[in-house]
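FORM 12-B: Structure-to-Sequence Request
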């Protein structure tokens, strides 16, 4: 077997959460009378943590105080509406089950705040499916810093070169490469092939089943 473990990004890789992320963000913007953005634009706003999302969608002239206030309102809205429309991408459930049956250790590493990451994992996946779930926390640098991925590797007891890191953005590809892992970029997520290839994707996959193939072929 080529890999012993697979680490997955969450939003845009396992979970199609764009509508909930965008709807909550736009609702927050309306509270402060700021212009809203098309849902599709959020494909490029999300992926680098909640604070960065807020900075990207607010007017460039926004003050630090406004950013903090907006982040707090967004956090409260998302805590209520995080699962209104979110769902697993087609084929994800079977892909994960196949990898588990093959004996791979599975993990999630997200820039979504840790509490929300764990909420999503509990809601959308069977208990015990993932051996490790980590979201963004203050004590570990967010992706594309490799620390979170390396912590998972150490916890799983698996060398980085035996891990496949799977994600849908440049941030994910850089995270995996900096951690010394192989990287697979998915085409069903938030970004395009060009971005993935330019940022170090070792593999490009068009459907979840291809990840199973990567992990079982020598």
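FORM 12-B RESPONSE
SEQUENCE OUT:
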């Amino acid at each position: 077997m080529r890999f012993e473990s697979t680490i997955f990004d969450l939003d845009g890789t396992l979970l199609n959460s764009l509508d909930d992320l965008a709807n909550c963000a736009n609702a927050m913007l309306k509270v402060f009378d700021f212009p809203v953005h098309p849902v599709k634009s959020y494909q490029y706003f999300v992926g680098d943590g909640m604070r960065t999302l807020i900075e990207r969608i607010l007017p460039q002239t926004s003050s630090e105080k406004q950013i903090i206030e907006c982040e707090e309102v967004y956090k409260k809205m998302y805590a209520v509406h995080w699962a209104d429309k979110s769902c697993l991408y087609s084929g994800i459930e079977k892909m994960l089950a196949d990898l588990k049956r093959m004996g791979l250790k599975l993990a999630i590493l997200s820039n979504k705040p840790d509490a929300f990451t764990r909420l999503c994992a509990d809601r959308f996946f069977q208990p015990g499916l993932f051996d490790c779930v980590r979201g963004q926390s203050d004590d570990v640098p967010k992706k594309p810093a490799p620390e979170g991925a390396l912590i998972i590797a150490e916890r799983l007891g698996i060398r980085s070169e035996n891990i496949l890191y799977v994600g849908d953005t440049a941030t994910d590809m850089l995270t995996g490469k900096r951690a010394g892992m192989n990287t697979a970029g998915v085409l069903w997520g938030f970004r395009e092939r060009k971005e993935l290839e330019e940022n170090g994707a070792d593999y490009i996959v068009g459907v979840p089943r291809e990840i199973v193939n990567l992990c079982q072929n020598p």
